[in-house]
Write a structure and sequence with these properties.
alpha/beta, 336 residues, 16% strand, single chain, 2 domains, 11 strands
Amino acid sequence: MTSKNQNRNGITTAIIFTGEIRTLKKTISFMKNNLIITGKEYIFATLDSENDRDKKDAEFMMKKWFGNQLISIDWLNSSRDHFLMNSMYNLTNFIKQDWWKRFLTRGGSMIEYYQMFVSYTKIIEHEMKQGKKYDFIFRCRTDTIFNIPLDYNWLYIKEETIKNRINTIKTILSTNNNEKIFTIFMSTLLNFGVENLEKKDFEIMYKQDSMEAQLFDPCDYLLTEIIKTLDCGLIKKYICNGRYILTIRKNLMYLCKRDFFHVIPSIGVCYGMVQQIGNKQQFNAESQFRLFCKNSGLSVFNYNNHYDNSSLYEYDEKKFIQNGKCLAKMYCIVRK
């Protein structure tokens, strides 16, 4: 799974699926078409359902679509899992605000990370059995569509392309703020078509990151030099070797090198244990994710755009799916 002479066809990816199964019929074809590219992508799913018939149907569907790429399916009954319920109880014991207690015990924030933790243990088991580690880990939810191929072409980006993309971002933003330009360059790394984004899309990406003040690892000297110079050679080096995680809509989906991912799944069993004094939103799913990334020494580069983001708040299926095609620029959520 990891080799010195690596090419894009040799990259292996462990894909973690979490969530409920009510929208699986609508999202699974897009998962197959955009995530299974070379046959070196492998699925580890932890799903939530209380209905045995629905479980059998979902397992049949996933085996049909993914075949040998499906390594494991685990089922979590969130209302009966003793470890999860005990974690919720312990956390809410030291939280004073009643509304946070209601949010954590009734919502899915802790559940989705616990599901990820369960899948991650299966990844480790499979790696030990195979005697090899995966190169990347990609996590997504069963109610989301990732609408571009996960092809890793960006790992082989040429310096000339880097220069052109940076100039395009400069032009659209009308800025010489190197930190802002580099942030948006990295945030759009998975999407080569930056020209189809607007200034307001770039602004929402930068605003989301800079507001949380967790973008860059201050000890990363390569990053410090890049922010000074925007040197294309250094940027290419950082893309290949840097310690970062690429996220989509904060924590909806994320892609990270396997060697840097190991702390992230611990959110599932340590939710709320990493805190940020003064952050009133520190116990929500997005803030917990950011705090664990920060404590992993990961720089976070977050993609978003106004069109795709609207699927979270004003979902209209006809706006995003027509004639079996998804119209999102990179992602959308399917509600029912």
